[in-house]
Amino acid sequence: MNRLVLNLALALLVALLFAGSLMAGKFWVPFSAWFSQDPRWWIIAELRLPRAILGLAIGAALGLSGAVLQGFLRNPLADPAVVGVSSSAALGAVASIVLLGSSAPLVLFACAMAAACGSMLLLATLAWRAESAVAFILAGSVLASLGGALTSFLISISPNPYATAEILDWIMGALTDRSFAEVHLAVPFIMLGCAVLFATGRALDGLTLGEAAARSMGLRLERTQLLVVLGTGLAVGASVAVTGVVGFVGLIVPHLLRPLTGARPSALLLPSALGGAALLLAADSLVRLSPGAGEIRLGVAMALLGTPFFFVLLLKLRRSTWN
Q1: Quick check: 85 and 299 in contact, CB under 8 A?
Q2: What are phi and psi of 292, to 5 degrees?
Q3: Within a 13 Å sphere around the CA of 307, how many CA atoms are in the beta-carbon half?
Q4: Where are the alpha helices (DSSP H) in the chain?
Q5: Distance (Å, rounded) from C-alpha 180 to C-alpha 175?
Q6: Distance between CA atoms of 112 and 135, rounded to whole angstroms?
Q7: Quick one: how far is CA 195 from the chain centroid?
Q8: Closest CA to 81 of 54, 96, 62, 60
Q9: 61 Cβ contact list (under 8 Å, min separation 6)
Q10: N-term to C-term CA, the chain
Q11: Along the 323 residues of the chain, how does pLDDT read in single tens digits?
Q12: Which of 156, 145, 168, 161 is nearest to 93 (CA)?
């Protein structure tokens, strides 16, 4: 498919889903109530608009980082969780609740970003000047395991059952009750991280020929690795800091769009960002329409959607290996 047509179609889809996200919920707000004295307009202005902005930004960050990581690692199963940034940011947020006794947005965000930045530095140190991407994957897996284990440890020693319930609710991932305070905190970091990730396109194209060929083309793979770590850390770390852990977007979206963009990884970056935004806006609208007074957590919904997709992907990979 023509890249311009594809990107325009995805941008239109994102715009429609953004508008749908403002309308959908336990109380449906029709377009006729927008920008009027209708009290339902305040539901959009105060509650749904910041939530939709976060859904758009976080979905774009997760989709883009998934496309970059799959291109850099040349691994179709890679997603942002593989570098340990998500689990590290979650660890920082949980530490703020358990150790500092604070779940204020600013404190939670600061602790989550500090943990994400610390894991980025550690990952860059562990994988620096490695000859292949295997060291990068192993270092990321170690950080992800360590972050998960320390998070479980903090939950187990938490003396306050209310704090434990709050942690578990936060870890499941959600955009519920997010405000413009979270938008102002997270969106600048997400935009900066996405800009860094977009700068890796040429290097990702070169890597499709192999690391030796890429180096012979004058590409500095160590610099590319640092850009991937920095961009993923900023974009995904800021996302996790305000929503909790929302998985599978970075895995699903590049796979759905790759058949439409061809083999060049750089051609997949913008469509993946738009596709991730569309997927998260659609999922967040649907979880609000779930039966009952509450709503399904966004992270839970994405896991229910992503797990079968992951298994289908594994079966396809095994079938292609056997053939």
Answers
A1: no
A2: 95, 175
A3: 5
A4: 3-23, 40-43, 49-73, 85-98, 105-127, 133-157, 161-171, 180-198, 201-207, 211-216, 221-243, 249-261, 266-288, 298-322
A5: 12
A6: 25
A7: 15
A8: 62
A9: 190, 193, 194, 235, 236, 238, 239, 273, 276
A10: 28
A11: 688 899 999 999 999 999 999 998 888 888 888 887 888 888 888 889 999 999 999 999 999 999 998 888 887 777 877 778 888 888 898 888 888 877 788 888 889 888 888 887 887 787 766 666 677 778 888 888 888 899 889 888 887 787 788 788 778 888 888 889 999 999 999 999 999 999 999 889 888 888 778 788 877 878 888 898 889 889 988 998 888 888 889 888 998 898 898 878 999 999 999 999 999 999 999 888 877 777 788 888 888 888 887 778 777 776 765 55
A12: 168
Residue 67 phi, psi dihedral angles, 5° rounding: -65, -40
| 245, 90 Cβ separation under 8 angstroms | yes
Q: What are phi and psi of 229, to 5 degrees?
A: -65, -45
Q: Are the CB atoms for 112 and 86 separated by under 8 Å?
A: no
Dmax over CA atoms of the chain, in Å, equals 64
Please list, in sequence order, all residues whose beta carbon lies within 8 angstroms of the beta carbon of residue 108, skipping any fewer than 6 positions away. Answer: 93, 96, 97, 102, 241
Looking up tokens 């030796």 gives 212
What's the token pair of residue 295?
Answer: 């709503």
- As a whole number of Å, the CA-based R_g of the chain is 20
- Our measurement of the distance from residue 67's CA atom to the centroid of its chain's CA atoms, rounded to an integer in Å, reads 11
Which pair of tokens denotes residue 186?
A: 């997270």
- Interior angle at CA 262, CA 254 and CA 70, nearest 5: 35
| Cα gap 275→270, rounded to integer Å | 8
Q: For tokens 């569309």, what's the residue?
A: 278
